[in-house]
Write a structure and sequence with these properties.
Layout (H helix, E strand, L loop, with lengths): L1 E5 L1 H4 L5 H11 L3 E3 L9 H14 L5 E5 L8 H20 L4 E5 L12 H21 L3 E4 L12 H11 L4 E6 H6 L14 E6 L19 H11 L4 E4 L10 H18 L5
Parallel strand pairs: 1-2, 1-8, 3-4, 4-5, 5-6, 6-7, 7-8
Length: 273
């Protein structure tokens, strides 16, 4: 698998997109995932990013974002977010990316008032429609597992059930190692995603709270998870996902540290290639 990073690590520190891409290429990453907003991005910026990634030899693989409104109980809200997701699919196509990757969101009102089964079905219907649109553009959809109590997809079993019920060749799963740890999902369960996962996120955490830290800064034991991911035979990318650095002036060092440790872990697992 290739080693990539979500460029938001630099964007969060106020660094220009292209300047961040230049750092990413220099540090040694194979690919990049670009966090942006497809609604409102200018044609000039789209062209600027395309030129930069081509010049740097840095393929865009994924466009990660949140799509919480896809399971909203109000149909106009769902329709708006379907159209918004279509913009991301179009943008992914413009950048020759492989997939869009989004978070579906959470059950509202503690799973009361609105039947949880209804929100689940709205998610299925929305993803099927988006899968059809993405299929025409040769783009995949990767769904994020979130380790929060009310998240729609908060366990591997929930992810497997959703992907199976959606039953669309373009709708697949993302594996986030720290999210699995926070959801108390062991590496032995990763095999349930065989044939269903297309992308991977790597970050560390303290085992209690969502953190997105460089590997080695928390408690995650990556070896067994990376071995389990290797056994899935995914033709994809391991993308480092970082939250805000403690010191924005040292974001480059923050990313370099994450690169070194993730590369080391992938090499130990014979996963990078």
């Amino acid at each position: 698998m290739k080693l990539g990073i979500i460029n938001s690590a630099f964007a969060q520190a106020g660094i220009d997109t292209v300047a961040g891409l230049e750092h990413i290429a220099r540090i040694g990453f194979d690919t990049v995932d670009i966090g942006t907003e497809a609604c409102g991005i200018s044609a000039r910026e789209v062209r600027r990013v395309a030129r930069a990634t081509e010049k740097l030899g840095l393929p865009v693989i994924s466009l990660p974002f949140t799509a919480l409104g896809l399971i909203d109980f109000q149909k106009p809200v769902r329709e708006f977010h379907i159209e918004r997701c279509k913009r991301f699919i179009d943008l992914a196509k413009a950048w020759n990316a492989r997939n869009i990757l989004f978070v579906l969101g959470e059950y509202v009102w503690q799973r009361e008032v609105i039947p949880p089964a209804a929100q689940w079905q709205w998610g299925i219907e929305s993803c099927r429609r988006l899968g059809d649109y993405a299929g025409k553009r040769q783009i995949d959809i990767a769904l994020e597992l979130e380790p929060f109590r009310l998240s729609l997809l908060n366990s591997i079993d929930a992810m497997v059930r959703f992907v199976d019920e959606c039953d669309h060749p373009r709708v697949r799963a993302n594996i986030d190692v720290s999210h699995l740890v926070l959801a108390d999902v062991g590496p032995n369960e990763v095999q349930k995603l065989r044939g269903k996962a297309i992308h991977v996120h790597v970050s560390d955490c303290d085992g209690k709270v969502h953190g997105d830290l460089p590997p080695g800064r928390g408690v995650v034991k990556f070896g067994p998870y990376l071995q389990a991911i290797k056994e899935l035979g995914i033709d994809g990318v391991v993308a480092v996902e970082l939250e805000y650095p403690p010191d924005a002036t040292k974001v480059v060092e923050w990313v370099e540290e994450a690169y070194r440790e993730t590369d080391r872990l992938m090499q130990l697992a014979d996963l990078r290639g």
